[in-house]
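Milestone 3.1: sequence recovery, worked example.
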């Protein structure tokens, strides 16, 4: 089971995109779309600081790392949850786990595995540190309970060499279409079998055969 396109967009919108090394709210070195060393390589602490010289390349790298991370978080949710899930429920749980890393120990998972979806939805609000995360947690709870997906553009933020993100104004906003193209890059086209080239016949040879054909008709007449 994998996140839906709308679920992916919601998750990236929650995280935002910082195409450089930055400190998160817990003062942990982070890169791109919420990537930390806890998710595996690359270790953000070893990456160059400041904004990339090529912003587009930096954004593509952020999405590349995110796609690798996402597979781990999806797998962790599937291991922890023992009951069938609707796509919007899975989307909400992966978003929650991507942010908290707590799917295996969360009360919401215990409630869900016990068949109490209402209690599971309410338990999303047991994870409110830092306080600024409340709006995201409410959105994840509502997505889990009702299938309501947020919408809108996705911000790209700048960061200085000290890891401080400038949240005053995004330097770019990605449309949903642009983000999806980066989330699900097109597969490499399968090359078609080569067809031997046909060498064009010189015009003089074609005219010579045509002349011979008409000469034959005249003789027969």
């Amino acid at each position: 089971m994998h996140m839906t396109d709308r679920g992916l967009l919601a998750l990236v919108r929650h995280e935002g995109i910082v195409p450089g090394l930055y400190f998160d709210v817990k003062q942990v070195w982070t890169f791109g779309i919420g990537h930390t060393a806890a998710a595996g390589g690359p270790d953000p602490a070893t990456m160059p600081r400041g904004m990339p010289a090529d912003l587009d390349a930096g954004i593509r790298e952020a999405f590349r790392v995110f796609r690798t991370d996402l597979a781990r978080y999806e797998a962790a949710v599937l291991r922890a949850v023992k009951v069938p899930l609707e796509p919007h429920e899975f989307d909400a749980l992966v978003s929650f786990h991507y942010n908290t890393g707590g799917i295996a120990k969360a009360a919401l998972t215990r409630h869900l595995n016990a068949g109490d979806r209402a209690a599971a939805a309410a338990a999303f609000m047991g994870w409110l540190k830092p306080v600024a995360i409340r709006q995201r947690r409410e959105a994840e709870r509502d997505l889990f309970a009702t299938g309501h997906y947020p919408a809108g553009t996705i911000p790209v933020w700048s960061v200085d060499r000290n890891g401080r993100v400038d949240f005053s104004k995004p330097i770019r906003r990605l449309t949903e279409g642009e983000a999806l193209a980066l989330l699900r890059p097109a597969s490499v086209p399968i090359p078609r079998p080569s067809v031997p080239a046909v060498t064009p016949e010189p015009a003089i040879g074609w005219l010579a055969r045509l002349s011979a054909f008409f000469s034959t008709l005249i003789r027969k007449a």
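Helices lie at 5-15, 55-80, 87-100, 107-113, 117-123, 134-146, 176-183, 203-220. The longest helix spans residues 55-80.
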